[in-house]
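The passage that follows is intended for readers who have already worked through the single-chain material. We present the inputs for a multi-component assembly, then the predicted structure in tokenized form, and finally a short commentary. You are encouraged to pause after the input and sketch how you expect the pieces to fit together before reading on.
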Amino acid sequence: MLETLKQKVYEANMSLPKYGLVVFTWGNVSGIDRENNLVVIKPSGVDYDELSADKMVVVDLDGNIVEGDLKPSSDTATHIELYKAFKDIKGVVHTHSPWAVSFAQAGIDIPAAGTTHADYFYGDIPVTSPMTSSEIETDYEKQTGLVIVKAFDERTIDPNQIPGVLVNDHGPFTWGTSPSNAVHNSVVLEQVAQMTYHGLMLSNRNSRMDQELLDKHYLRKHGKAAYYGQ
Amino acid sequence: MLETLKQKVYEANMSLPKYGLVVFTWGNVSGIDRENNLVVIKPSGVDYDELSADKMVVVDLDGNIVEGDLKPSSDTATHIELYKAFKDIKGVVHTHSPWAVSFAQAGIDIPAAGTTHADYFYGDIPVTSPMTSSEIETDYEKQTGLVIVKAFDERTIDPNQIPGVLVNDHGPFTWGTSPSNAVHNSVVLEQVAQMTYHGLMLSNRNSRMDQELLDKHYLRKHGKAAYYGQ
Amino acid sequence: MLETLKQKVYEANMSLPKYGLVVFTWGNVSGIDRENNLVVIKPSGVDYDELSADKMVVVDLDGNIVEGDLKPSSDTATHIELYKAFKDIKGVVHTHSPWAVSFAQAGIDIPAAGTTHADYFYGDIPVTSPMTSSEIETDYEKQTGLVIVKAFDERTIDPNQIPGVLVNDHGPFTWGTSPSNAVHNSVVLEQVAQMTYHGLMLSNRNSRMDQELLDKHYLRKHGKAAYYGQ
Amino acid sequence: MLETLKQKVYEANMSLPKYGLVVFTWGNVSGIDRENNLVVIKPSGVDYDELSADKMVVVDLDGNIVEGDLKPSSDTATHIELYKAFKDIKGVVHTHSPWAVSFAQAGIDIPAAGTTHADYFYGDIPVTSPMTSSEIETDYEKQTGLVIVKAFDERTIDPNQIPGVLVNDHGPFTWGTSPSNAVHNSVVLEQVAQMTYHGLMLSNRNSRMDQELLDKHYLRKHGKAAYYGQ
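Having made your guess, compare it with the prediction:
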């Protein structure tokens, strides 16, 4: 069942330690089959070197296990809320990559400060509001997803144009057009967090880039007028 | 004698350079056999690539060598005090990992600032008070252990819930349910020190996370209501 | 056609990930045949592990493809402007190396603060002025080159003595006497950005080194009186 | 001639890139035969992967080449002044390791801030005064050595107890009882520069450790009462 997607999700998970984004089991990748509304995700707390494609867990959009002997990632409910709200995405990644976490812990957006950022994220990468006591106490992981969705709704951010977020005092989630694309966006988010941290330390005046430059870089890679690549 | 424990302590020591926690011989791991009150520990000043399981030294809780041709780690007396005071722990690690040392040298706690921290440490990781002249002059390594224990006593911290400490102007000690678990906690402490350093530089207002979020993350991994992992 | 130059440009491109200067496809190296006014450059958006010498693209100084099945780097027009204005250079490199980008995003020069810098760059490494809306809208990549040239003209900087620049809110370009020499200068620029960042954090008074020391180090490696090396 | 010493100096040079202390050819190690007053040193500007023991150059204490086909390191005259003034040392290292350079560029000592430092350096690691115009203009490398010696003389620092220095706006020199011991001290200096940089950023109050703790750690590893190691 969903052998191709399982393989893709497995490979995307394995690329997290390769890119230096995770320590121990601190990360997970999922993918979705939009036709059947089934999500394939890493099992919970399993070491990366013990993973294989057939250990991936299949769940439906209510979180029920449809296939698999292992429990799915404890963050599964968060992934599901993202798939339900952001209709175009096909992969989700969560890590505790250190530079992104630093911004999450500081509770501040990563401002769109340069073209590296603009090539992938069409504006600031938002940090969510802190979760309330009731959000934490009941269905915490599901509420985490809803808090992300709320941040995008309230600030009218298009999740296809800003494919990532910082959960307050927690860490980054990213998404994309496939599991591997979502990982790609996680790598980018960590890189821009590092660059922008040091840029802010050097000078925190006018950290945000000009809108024209942001437009230029984002749009030369995305949309109808894109001309980057082959 | 204690062949299994020696092997575990040897492997835990060898994992320190693998995780990038030590340079040269700046670290040591021990384990305890609680039935016989015997501690197995790395020999002093021996390079990691010259270590083997049978070079591990066995000492009793008075610090007497029970087995082994080499002198035990110079920090042995510190490990012993931790085993004597913290009855549940079965492994102890000391390193000079650079981010943790930075907090130790600054003399400030690592505040519980995010969920990475909360997944393993149920509150701030304390820094001890500076050692007094008399503590330094007589039985320094034993006094180092006692200063750690005093920090936990005075602040009524449960060492099972905060499995690590920063010795002032020195560096981290961690412990755990086994030698490898204690190493795991050393890796986590170094990671959260790195993340929280940068978070504090970005914003030092409200660096401490909400208690509800701390509770949620710690308790979903520890205790009766835990649900993380398989 | 230009087989030797293609091989050199290919090898120079492959050295970018080796030196840790690029993530994904975020960099490109070109070389020029000054006799025939032909530029050899990396194709756009191709992964480094899929590159080969025969995939390099040959363009003329108007940007027309003279040979090659792939589209040239989207930054080709920038490279061309540099070759046209800086008559002695034979290689150009662009990366998003993180320390250099931090200065670019902060919009500040890398001051000549120590001898590592002085061994290769005879003065501050300039940041360009921000690009104007019209420069961004029309022929952006060509205008990027012209903005670099303007920075050197207005500040009367000799591009042979300062073989690199930071494009505002973007990142570094470097050049040199060959493609590999231009890569060498990219590595140096990233190193001095890292060193000088931390030096500025420790003390931002008198960050610029004395002119005599700058002269000594630059001139013992460059020009008629050089005596470094064999 | 001096085959054993050449081999040791060669191996010590090769350990510099292994420990991450050098980029390109930015470092050199020498050793001295105190009986014959001959110094063995790396040739100038030769890549590490082209080095071999028989390429090491032998010079006397006036800087004359006694054996070797290549020119010695451009820093040879600095090494010689250190050997002449510091009678007990048998190896000298120069690098541009980035954390140490940051302190050198800031022009500030590395304060003795923790036990990692105290285990090897019995007090602050001094930065020299800036070199004067006349020191730079004539016999620059020899004057660099004399400026180091002057710093130790004026502040009455024992070079056996503080086996390293930061040359102002330049970088670190270290020394030791052998070429490999001098490299060891370079690694330590870089580590403590990194730790102490971050400690100073977290809190710059009372950065210097207590004298008793400094005494304890230095003296448990050095001198008659040492008890660390086998």
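Commentary: Residues 179-202 of chain A form the longest helix (24 residues). Chain A has eight helices and seven strands. How closely did your sketch match?
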